[in-house]
Input
Amino acid sequence: MQQLIESPLSPITQQLMDIYNTLYQHFGPQHWWPGETPFEITVGAILTQNTAWRNVEKAILNLKRAGLLAPEALYRLPLPYLATLIRPAGFFNLKAKRLKNFLEFLFKEYEGDLDRMFKEDTNTLREKLLKVRGIGPETADSILLYAGGKPTFVVDAYTRRILSRHNLISEEADYEEIRSFFMDHLPEDAGLFNEYHALLVALGKTYCRPKPLCEKCVLKDLF
DNA sequence: TGCCAGGCCGGGT
DNA sequence: ACCCGGCATGGC
Output
């Protein structure tokens, strides 16, 4: 029988929202993803793998200045030249290949059109992106959420560190487990997921580096 | 000066 | 199913 009264929020949901509200009050809106178009965001998502964002910005600027930050242009561009342009992002040979792998996928499956790609069912698209060499779960979710506006939660090193240090997940929880932890306990809202992940990164950069500064962390009063 | 950054892959147990 | 080395530049 259907419930006639609203069920109270679960303790975990409440806790996750407390964390969110505290972070939002402290850091304010993060305006993610820092990129102007879905394609720029997608390229950035691949380039930023284990790399400081400021280095990615240089690489993206190189592509922009060369007029090459578009699917067709990058698809045609010879691999060695692409590698040179994205050099500041580090792992440039590897990432040039990964960008090419994605473009190959985009053109074979969606005629090089990101809008077409995002018309695909979200879970189906996520599985397909994960099959592209060089796109793992974080990159796939970043593309889906920040370039496509799809409600999927992005998990990164900061997310894992922050949650495990506060004993919300076990140390050895894997990616899918952590992602589900958020998605099972929060409303399916791309705007919320967008801001939440960005805020966790803001917190992580400030207080949750490998050397923790927990005594200064804005979350300390919640635990 | 070394450590770290918004991961992921491939080969070895 | 894990574990680990490799990939590379630039800032603090």
About this structure: Residues 45-46, 48-56, 90-91, 94, 98, 133-139, 142, 154, 156-159, 197-198, 200-201, 204-205, 209-210 of chain A lie near DNA strand B (CB under 10 Å from a C1'). Residues 92-110 of chain A form the longest helix (19 residues). Chain A has a mean pLDDT of 94.
